[in-house]
Design goal:
The complex is a heterodimer of chains A (362) and B (233). Chain A is 67% helix and 1% strand. A two-stranded parallel sheet of chain A has the order 1-2. The two termini of chain A are 21 Å apart. The N terminus and C terminus of chain A are likely disordered. Chain B has 233 residues and is mainly β. Chain B is 9% helix and 41% strand. Chain B has a five-stranded mixed sheet with strand order 5-11-10-7-8, with no helix packed on it. Classes of the chains: A mainly alpha (362), B mainly beta (233). Chains A and B meet through helix 2 and helix 7 of A and strand 7 and strand 8 of B.
């Protein structure tokens, strides 16, 4: 991607984009609390709340699970409004056509997300809850990307790229970018597995860590699963566990290990290729710290018998892990593209394309 | 009819074997030590619900008597379907009291009404989550003092879950049978399956945590006793 004429930064637009991303993160947390408290169906109607217009539902009625579900809906409405404003602002005030369409995409995605959430309740369909969780994460990535695209740094890369990767490094960066992309894709798969686990509403399929029912690989025979269910006494989420759910959690653990190894490799490679003072090398270290924190939170989720706040923190750090990988890739691509000797190894750059001459802040 | 005909009729009738339905009775016990019950900590963290208690209530997954009697086992005739009399039976009542479902284990017939009451002073939502196709999932608001909610189910199902998402610790499990031949063990472990026609049957005992046991019996013209002993593995 390249803009042949530099675009002047629209500071209020950028900060509004940042605010939208922050509120989206808050919304992810609110949504995480809904599932962690098993409150997803506590408000049986939508878009009303117990027959009231959702904005007029009396706070005195926000009891138990209703508090989590209803505040989630209110925050979601706020994020929907902010996204609409952001999309319009981008369309009318930013000169980059490709960013107009990303704004439209964000608007459409937030509408889809809202409808999915409503249908999940109205149709009582837990499967829709899985899609709702994943799209929420992807929407968060999109809002963070928009914040990046409207930033001073991004716009400066064309006119006076201060962060250009030199030609010698750029050639080796392709492999690292691919590794980061693959790791980010694996994180997304991990989030899908996590969302699937949470929507089983069966609590913890495996109640110990790092072992699994006292073994490296748990016994999933019918007799063993029967025994596990006899000894599991859950106050909430009281569905019996199945062999499938136990195996799913084991896959989740193995994927976590793989992601850890991959992010260590990414951080090491970034430091080696770019030097320890480079911002991407530092970002890769932040990414690694997030992954290590995420593993600790995963263990804490099990040790705390899936305490709602711990499980929700696990969801949020998962979201941050996904966003960090995505932004790392985009930034690296941008810096490599700013290099005069850069020759894109893939056709991804074609998606951005050269834009016609632009004027700043129409 | 003259006297001779009457005597002949009586003689004929006396030689026709008459069979009667009988009851299957028995006791369900538990061998081994079940895990300790869990306190309803989330209930006590809710200001409305906790006000109804002076101490933290606990779960009742295993209701075991001093002599190992096991309550809440559903005992039924396996494979007997199409004999439901549910439409003619009185409704079975499921109440919400103290932010808990009472009772937690109950059984009805297909077509029989299940009436859900809200005896609490707070909102509940009654969320029925069947696993068998044909039994409708539903999620309804029930305001305090509001009208009873009524359900019927066309398909047999074991331990269909009723829950409240406002108070996510609230569960009840309703088993639906397609015949009247079932009983639930009481606190003394005793159950009765009434008026079983003569024949050979497999009697099945199901406990929500302990699984299933079966026994083969033959019912003739007197009550049959069959006992079950579950093992905690």
């Amino acid at each position: 991607m390249s803009e042949s004429v530099s675009v002047k930064m629209n500071r209020p637009l950028h900060w509004f984009a940042v605010l939208t991303a922050l509120f989206t993160f808050l919304l992810l947390g609110a949504g995480g609390l809904v599932t962690s408290h098993e409150a997803g169906m506590s408000v049986p109607d939508w878009p009303n709340s117990y027959g009231y217009n959702m904005f007029l539902f009396p706070p005195s009625q926000w009891i138990g699970g209703i508090f989590y579900e209803h505040t989630h809906r209110l925050i979601a409405s706020g994020v929907g409004l902010m996204t609409t404003i952001l999309a319009m602002w981008l369309w009318f005030k930013d000169s980059r056509k490709w960013l107009h369409w990303i704004g439209v995409g964000a608007f459409l995605l937030v509408v889809v997300q809202g409808v999915l959430g409503g249908l999940r309740v109205v149709l009582a369909d837990a499967q829709l809850g899985i899609f709702h969780a994943i799209i929420g994460q992807l929407f968060f990535v999109l809002t963070c990307a928009i914040a990046l695209f409207t930033s001073r740094w991004w716009l400066a890369q064309e006119s006076s790229p201060s962060d250009r990767i030199n030609s010698q490094t750029a050639a080796g960066m392709t492999a690292l970018r691919r590794l980061v992309l693959a790791t980010t894709a694996l994180i997304l798969c991990q989030l899908i597995i996590g969302a699937t686990m949470r929507q089983q509403h069966a609590g913890l399929a495996i109640s110990d860590f790092p072992l699994a029912y006292g073994k490296i690989w748990p016994d999933t025979s019918a007799a063993a699963v029967q025994s596990y269910n006899e000894h599991r006494l859950n106050v909430i989420a009281e569905n019996p566990i199945t062999a499938f759910q136990i195996i799913l959690q084991m896959v989740h653990r193995i994927a976590a290990l793989a992601i850890c190894v991959l992010t260590v490799t990414c951080a090491w490679q970034a430091r080696r290729r770019l030097g320890k003072k480079d911002s991407l090398a530092k970002l890769a270290l932040v990414w690694l710290a997030l992954i290590l924190g995420q593993i600790l939170l995963g263990a804490a989720t099990i040790w705390s018998n899936k305490a709602a706040d711990v499980a929700t923190a696990h969801v949020l750090v998962g979201a941050l892990s996904l966003v960090t990988g995505a932004l790392w890739f985009i930034i690296a691509f941008r810096r490599s593209a700013a290099s005069p000797e850069f020759v894109p190894a893939t056709t991804i750059s074609g998606a951005y394309g050269a834009s016609p001459a632009m004027t700043a802040n129409k | 009819m003259n006297k001779i005909s009457l005597v002949l009729l009586i003689a004929v009738l006396a030689n026709i074997p008459v069979t009667q339905a009988a009851d299957i009775i028995g006791t369900v016990t538990l061998k081994g030590t079940p895990p300790p019950e869990v306190p309803y900590a989330p209930l006590m963290n809710d200001s409305t619900c906790s006000a109804m208690y002076t101490s933290t209530p606990t779960t009742h997954f295993y209701v075991v008597g001093l002599n190992h009697e096991l309550a809440d086992a559903i005992v039924s005739l396996k494979g007997v379907t199409g004999k439901s009399t549910g439409a003619n039976q009185s409704p079975v009542v499921l109440d919400q009291k103290g932010c808990l479902y009472v009772p937690q284990i109950l059984a009805i017939q297909t077509g029989q009404k299940l009436m859900v009451k809200n005896s609490d002073s707070c909102i509940h939502n009654v969320h029925c989550v069947p696993a068998v196709s044909g039994n409708p999932e539903s999620n309804q608001v029930q305001m305090p003092g509001g009208p009873d909610l009524t359900y019927t189910f066309p398909q047999p199902e074991m331990f269909m879950k009723f829950k409240c998402d406002v108070h996510p610790w609230m569960f009840a499990w309703v088993t639906v049978f397609d015949s009247p031949y079932y009983g639930i063990s009481d606190k003394e472990g005793k159950f009765v399956i009434k008026n079983v026609p003569p024949g050979k049957y497999t009697v099945e005992a199901d406990h929500r945590k302990l699984g299933t046991l079966t026994r083969d019996v033959e019912v003739k013209d007197s009550d049959v006793t069959v006992n079950f002993t579950f093992d905690v593995k």
